[in-house]
Amino acid sequence: MVYDTTTVFDSLPYYDNDLELYPFLKEKVDKELAREPKPPQTMHPLVPPPFELFKSNSLLAAELARVEAHHLLPPLDTVRYQLPAPTSSPGTDEGWREAIRNAHAQLEHQRLRHTNLALLQTYGQNAWRINNYLLEETAKQSEGALEELKQLTTELNRERKNSQTRYGAQLTTLETRWTELLSSILQIEMANVALEGEVERLRTKEGEMASLS
């Protein structure tokens, strides 16, 4: 279906009250609406498409889906933090070498974590504050735009109501004047019909009198 984006549908909701005054009109309107095809389920072309968060980051997208589904966080994998001894008894040289390599890997991992925590403690607070400041500014701008849009909507509705009320009074006056003129025309036509009847009666009477003489 192709939409005509230049078409503006408007009405006079602040003036028109025929449906309330004449219930039979509302019944006719409801019947006509019931015969109308259902509106399309697709959005209007002017409505922007839905914004997909974290489109380029699959990890964040999966985390967002988990939060939306109200699923719990998976439990922490503590196996990699363990230092298992050789499984064979007694332990072989290769088993102990594997255990030592695992211990060295765990130690290096903990050292990197300690370094990252130290960097986060030193520089993370400022980065967090800057990010919060940017988020607050974005939220303020969005709230300001929303408030401005609400104000414009309120002003537009107020202007429409005032104009419709003003023009509605003029329409009522013109409709009343039209009804009065129509009534006057009908009265004049009825008077003309009566006069034509009277003229015809007088002509008939004149003809009768002429025939008698």
UniProtKB/TrEMBL annotation:
Belongs to the SPF27 family. GO terms for cellular component: catalytic step 2 spliceosome; precatalytic spliceosome; Prp19 complex. The keyword Hydrolase does not apply. One of its GO terms (biological process) is mRNA processing. This is Breast carcinoma amplified sequence 2. It is found in: Nucleus. Residues 135-205 form a coiled coil. Pfam families: BCAS2. Keywords: Coiled coil, mRNA processing, mRNA splicing, Nucleus, Spliceosome. It comes from the Eukaryota.
